[in-house]
Amino acid sequence: MGVLENWVKIELQELFTTAIILVLIGASFEAAVPVATALTGNPNYQSAAISYLDSSIIDMSNFFMSLTKANYLISKAAGFSYSGSLSGYIATPFISEAPKAGLSPLIIALSGALDNLGNTILLMDAQKMLLIFFLKTIPAWFFPLGVLLRLVPNTRKIGAAILSLSIGGFLIFPWALIIDGEIYKVLQPGFQGTVPGSPHIVDPESAFGIQDIGEPPGIGVLCNKAMPAYTIIGEYLWSVMLCSWLGPAAGACSAIVHIIYYTSVAGFQISFTSSLQNYASSFNTQAATSQLYGMALPGVTQRVVVAIALTLFSAIMTIILTRNISIALGGEGQLYGLSKII
C-alpha cells in the first residue's frame, strides 16, 4: 500500500509539474508579443523572423542579379574576337585579335563570387523553410505529443525532450532570427552596393556601372538569312549555277564569278575591320576593374560572411537554450548528439 501511495504522489507531482510547465510556456508566448512589438514593430515575432529572412534573401538575390549582368557585360567584351584576310597568290594578309581577352581573370572572380552568393541565398532559404516547417508542425504534432509522453511514466524523459525541442523550434529559433535581423539592419547600410532608402536595397539592373558596349557592328548583315546562304554555297557552286549553261563562255564566266565572290567577301571583311577594332577597344577596363574590386566583390564578401555568422549564431543559441530547457524539464541533456555540434 505504501508503494502505491508513493507512486500516486509522484504521478500527481509530475502532473502538477506538467501543468506548471504548460502555464510557463503559455506565459512565455504571451510575453513575447509586447517584446516583439517594441523591438521590431511587429507583434507577431514569428512573422518578424520570416521578414528578416525575406529581406536578406531579396537583398542578396538583387545583388546576385546585378553581378550576373556585370558578368555578362564583361564576358561580352572579353570573349569578343575577330579576324580578317585578303586572299593573294604570293602572300595573304591576315589579322586576328581579341582586344579585351585580358579581362578573363575578372570573369573567374565573378563566377566564384556568384557561386558563393548563390550558396548563401540557399542557406537563408533553408532557414526560412525550416522555420515554416517548425511553425506548421510543432503546434499540431510535436507539442501535443511531448505533453502526452511526459504524462506517461515510461516516456517522461523523451516527452520532456520533445517539449524542449518544440519550445526551441517554435519560440527560441524565431527569436534568434529576430536578433539576427536586428544585427543585419545595423550592418546592412554599410554593405557595398546598397541604395539608401530603397526597399530592395540593391538595384538588380545596376551592373555596378559596368559599361555596355552594345552589339558588335554588322550584326544586321551577319544575321541576315541571305548571308549564310551566300557563303555556304561558295564560289565553285556559284560558278556551276551561273556559268554551266554558257558553253564555251563558261570558263570566262567562272573566272568573273570567282573574282566577284572573293572581292565581295574580302571587301566585307575589310569594311568592318576598323569598326571591329574600335568595338571592344571602347570598353573601359580600368573602370570595370575598379567597380568590381571596389564594390561588387567586397559586397559579396560582406553579405556572405555576415549571413554565415548570423546563421551560426542562431543555430548555437537555439541548440544551447533548447538543451538547457530539456535538462530543466527532466529530458535528455544531450538531445541525442545535437549539443555536440557546439
Mean pLDDT: 79
Q: Report the principal-axis shape.
A: elongated
Largest sheet: 2 strands, antiparallel
What percentage of the residues does DSSP assign to strands (E)? Answer: under 5%
* C-alpha termini separation: 48 Å
How much helicity do the residues have? over 70%
Radius of gyration, whole Å: 35 Å
Total number of distinct structural domains: 1
Low-confidence stretches: 337-342
- Main sheet strand line-up: 1-2
Number of beta strands: 2
Instruction: State the secondary-structure class.
Output: mainly alpha
> What pattern of helices and strands is seen along the backbone?
HHEEHHHHHH
Write up this protein.
- It is a single chain.
- This protein has one domain.
- The protein has 8 helices and 2 strands.
- The protein has helices at residues 2-40, 45-78, 104-151, 156-187, 219-222, 226-243, 250-281, 285-328, and strands at residues 82-85, 94-97.
- A hairpin with an 8-residue loop joins strand 1 and strand 2.
- Residues 337-342 have low confidence and may be disordered.
Main traits of this protein?
342 residues, mainly alpha, two-stranded antiparallel sheet, 2% strand, disordered C terminus
